[in-house]
Design a protein that fits this description.
The chain is α/β, with parallel strands linked by helices and about 140 residues long. It is about 35% helix and about 15% strand.
């Protein structure tokens, strides 16, 4: 019969750290979740202003719409005008409406060269407030 004292004394017991790490990670996760639920945002009771008491509605002026038909005629208020008249009317409109825009509506079958020339003339008078209207399909 063999007694325990007769076994080999050179064997050291092994410590398995994986289960201990699992327990520590679970406890850490638990404390993080509890800490997050216990921290609440406190609000201050403040009366906010209403929308009717605030800003004034800014109304932009109606744009000046200029037409260019298939015959190459410049139309303003459904009347044919010359380029000199167009420049004069654009200048007076832009002086009266500092935030106004000038829009060119050209016929879709007109040669692009005519549209570009008229846009260039309009840009010389109106600067960056001149644009070309397009029709979305």
């Amino acid at each position: 019969m063999r007694f325990k004292s007769q076994q080999k004394k050179s064997e050291m017991p092994e410590v398995n750290l994986v289960p201990m790490m699992d327990v520590l990670m679970t406890i850490l996760t638990f404390f993080i979740i509890i800490a997050m639920t216990l921290t609440t945002q406190q609000t201050v009771n403040v009366t906010l202003p209403s929308a009717s008491a605030g800003a004034v509605e800014l109304k932009e002026p109606d744009p000046l719409i200029i037409g260019l038909n298939l015959q190459g005629e410049i139309l303003l208020d459904d009347k044919t005008v010359s380029q000199a008249e167009l420049s004069q009317r654009m200048q007076s409109y832009l002086v009266q409406n500092p935030k106004g825009a000038v829009i060119l509506k050209a016929a879709d079958k007109i040669p692009y060269e005519q549209v570009v020339k008229l846009l260039g003339t309009m840009r010389d008078v109106g600067g960056d407030r001149v644009s070309l209207a397009i029709e979305a399909n």
